[in-house]
Amino acid sequence: MFNIIKEIKCVEGKPIVIPYDNIDTDRIIPARFMKTTTFEKLGEYCFYDERFSNDGKPLDHPFNKVDKSSDYILITRKNFGCGSSREHAPQSLKRAGVKAVIAESFAEIFYGNATTIGLPCIVLNKSEIDRLINLPKDSADNIIIRLDIENKVLEVKSLDHSNVEKYNFELPEDIRLAFIKGIYDNISLLAEDLSAIKDFEKRIPYSF
Fold first, then answer.
1. Would strands 72-75 and 164-168 be described as parallel, antiparallel, or unpaired?
2. Please, which contacts does 163-167 make with residues 24 or more away whose CB atoms are closer than 8 Å?
3. 207 DSSP 8-state letter
4. CA-to-CA distance for 166 and 19, rounded, in angstroms?
5. What is the mean pLDDT of the chain?
6. Mind giving me the DSSP string for 15-31?
7. What angle do CA 176, 178, 181 make, to 5 degrees?
8. 3-state secondary structure of 60
9. Residue 186 · residue 178 · CB < 8 Å
10. pLDDT of residue 138
11. What is the per-residue pLDDT for 1?
């Protein structure tokens, strides 16, 4: 059974920072964890080889500190998602609690794979990324990043709303509309009208 596609007009979460260029898809989800028929448990293996030592001991990595009941906005640098075109990479991020990724730039195929599953990819310039990466670490748990997809505005705010910073971002209009109208997932969109699909199936000559 397919899930109904949800409109995405706004997303928010705590910042989680991996401040490096050229993070490739093999780092995001190592290939050996892709031998699965569903994506459901991929979040457990997101950045696995950087989170654990060879003997399985947890290392000092941001994804080892996430609260599974919270949502996160990943902040990173240039060319995020480069390398192989595996769709498992954005799937693993989404299932690890990441609601959006903010970077200086994205690999094109990763960008397409991510937006198709409802994972917004937002581009900011270097100085803005620097500002987000250098948010005070001792206050990170008290900060929420809010992405207003409709109006293309990013807000960084403290939980008590005592401090708010705003950044404007660009988003291709077709992708923005797909998010806010809930039409970003073509397969789920088709499956919403299964009766029309079944009627068509009965009319084709090789139907049984």
1. unpaired
2. 165/131, 167/124, 167/128
3. -
4. 21
5. 90
6. EEE---S--BHHHHS-G
7. 105
8. coil
9. no
10. 55
11. 41
Backbone angles phi, psi at 155, to 5 degrees: -120, 135
Q: How far is CA 143 from CA 14, 98, 126, in A?
A: 6, 15, 21
Read off the pLDDT of residues 59-104 as tens digits, 9 standing for 90 and up.
999 999 998 889 999 999 999 999 998 999 999 999 999 999 999 9
With tokens 């989404």, the residue in question is: 94
How far is the C-alpha of 175 from the C-alpha of 188, rounded, in Å? 16
pLDDT digits 0-9 by tens, 102-155: 999 999 999 999 999 999 999 999 999 999 999 876 565 789 999 999 999 999
The two tokens of residue 183 are 């039409």
Return the closest-CA partner of residue 102 out of 125, 83, 86, 82. Answer: 125
CA dist., res. 168 & res. 153, Å (int): 5
For tokens 């599974």, the residue is 68
For the question of whether the overall pTM of this predicted structure is more than 0.90, the answer is no
Please count the CA atoms within 13 angstroms of the CA of 32 that sit on its side-chain side: 3
156, pLDDT greater than 80: yes
- Quote the CA–CA distance of 166 and 120 in Å, as a whole number: 18
Take residue 99 and report the two structure tokens written for it.
């609601």
Alpha-helical segments (H) within the chain: 25-28, 48-51, 88-95, 108-116, 126-133, 173-181, 186-191, 194-203
